[in-house]
Write a structure and sequence with these properties.
The protein is built from 14 helices and no strands. The chain is an all-alpha fold. The longest helix has 29 residues.
């Protein structure tokens, strides 16, 4: 019913066009898949589970090497990564020549933006979390992925991955040893940040002063705008129609700066039905607080939550988490 309501809300909105309607249909399908992905599982034997964990460790190690190279070269104004012509959807987020010279560009691995690198790391850490206590490869892979997040300097990535790590450590058999390992990784990231002048602490200072652009468009701006939007448009404003407004209602906030958070986009675009859809989705993930944390983390990563790439990320996370059970791994 919620998925149907998303489409109906746009269809009944005066001034919406076919593109908005087609997008609502696509997002309703993604909403249906995201709500049901929590039970997906691929039965694995012990050897298969070990191979999957080892593969994730190899991938994480290669990504860490690439991120370290990018970190050093970006400080010198040199882009190193996949050819930019291979990026299609988010090519606009890649640095150009002026950005490399005058901006503080963050490493992004094989992705188009640091926040997506952190989101993929969140997904893989979540998938391996049940094996932290019983598998050495899983512990190494998780620590490598957490190091990647620190180097990416994605604020949302650091926040949600840190909360996930706290949950993992809380359930750890040897919490003291696990905490020591994580602190060592965090210390390494902090020292590297100071040595290479990466500006992690400068960015935290900017956020507390309300001067960080990414935090403003993803959190601060939408929090101020959503109550005003719901008061004037309780059934929401379709995406293209919302962008065409340029400025939201009587404030001076640009609409294009308010569409970078998936959670708030569901409310902005679908109003009361969007709030109901969020409640239904959270209810589907209610059995484990870590599931809830994963969904919120991916929502805050960017504005496109009800999309096929997020369905894929959630499917990978839930399949790994449900399939790699701790009792199927040899200690």
């Amino acid at each position: 019913l919620s998925a149907y309501g998303l489409v109906l809300t746009v269809a009944l909105y005066s001034g919406s066009d076919n593109q908005d309607l087609f997008r609502a249909v696509r997002e309703s399908v993604c909403f249906f898949l995201i709500s049901g992905v929590t039970t997906w599982i691929v039965p694995m034997e012990t050897k298969s589970s070990s191979r999957v964990i080892r593969l994730v460790r190899y991938i994480a190690s290669a990504m860490l090497g690439l991120v370290l190279i990018q970190t050093v070269l970006l400080c010198q104004g040199i882009y190193f990564g996949l050819p930019q012509d291979l990026f299609v959807i988010n090519r606009s987020t890649l640095p150009d020549a002026l950005d490399l010279l005058y901006s503080r560009i963050r490493p992004m691995g094989t992705f188009g933006e640091p926040s997506y690198l952190a989101a993929v790391s969140l997904v893989l850490i979540f998938g391996l979390r049940r094996c932290w206590r019983s598998d050495g490869d899983a512990r190494v892979a998780i620590l490598i992925l957490f190091s990647i997040v620190l180097l990416s300097r994605s604020f949302s990535g650091i926040v949600w991955n840190s909360l996930l790590m706290i949950g993992i450590l809380k359930d750890s058999r040897n919490a003291a040893l696990s905490m020591t390992a994580v602190i060592a990784v965090a210390f390494f990231g902090s020292v590297l940040s100071i040595y290479l002048e990466l500006g992690i602490f400068d960015r935290l200072s900017e956020i507390t002063r309300g001067q960080d652009y990414s935090f403003t468009v993803r959190v601060g701006g939408p929090i101020l705008a959503v109550p005003q939007i719901l008061a004037e448009h309780p059934w929401g404003i379709p995406p293209l129609k919302f962008l065409s407004l340029q400025y939201i209602l009587d404030s001076m906030m640009e609409t294009k700066k308010l569409v970078h958070n998936g959670l708030f986009n569901m409310i902005i675009n679908y109003g009361i039905i969007g709030v109901l859809a969020c409640w239904v989705m959270f209810y589907c993930y209610r059995r484990d607080k870590m599931n809830f944390l994963l969904v919120i983390g991916l929502m805050f990563q960017n504005g496109g939550f009800l999309s096929l790439d997020k369905v894929s990320l959630l499917a990978i996370a839930m399949i790994l988490s449900n399939s790699l059970q701790p009792n199927s791994i040899e200690g």
